[in-house]
Fold this sequence. Notes:
Layout: E1 20-21, H1 23-43, H2 52-64, H3 67-83, H4 91-109, H5 115-140, H6 149-171, E2 174-175
Antiparallel strand pairs: 1-2
Amino acid sequence: MSYSSGRILLSSQRESQTSRFRAWVLLVVPLFAILFQIYVPLFFPFAHFLELPLLVVVYFALMRRSQVQGLLIGAAVGLAQDSLSKNPLGMFGIVDTLVGYFAASIGLRLDVDHAFLRLVLCFFFYVFHEVLYWVLARALLGQMLALEWQRMLVQGLLNAVVGISLFHFLDRLRESV
């Protein structure tokens, strides 16, 4: 896998082809990310900031370059995450669905194989995810959650750095066309 050099915008239909993954990758990777987020912080409390399910949704939506598939991936991962956590059912489902849609929309326009662009997108989608969750918790559940900008920005940067490594690993699981 070589990263393209120089260009960020896609200029032809050939460049915007979707990446293909084996079926087991599309099932095992999100499941592993959800289980990681639930169980690892129990043993290592410093790892509570990692949002691996969000990073997996962003990756698959960016690489598949289909808004419908981004919606489906986001909804499936979000609802599975809700069902295995203490959160109200549907909160992560709604938020991850919107993240999947917008990530796929960006994947249609930009060459997302650039490491710096991936870093920026991981950071942006983490902040978007947190703000959207905050808005929905206030609007739908009536919870008065505090929006801690400093914590959110630092955790967004940490998730972006982890996302770069995760994306590099997941690139190796793509099928060659």
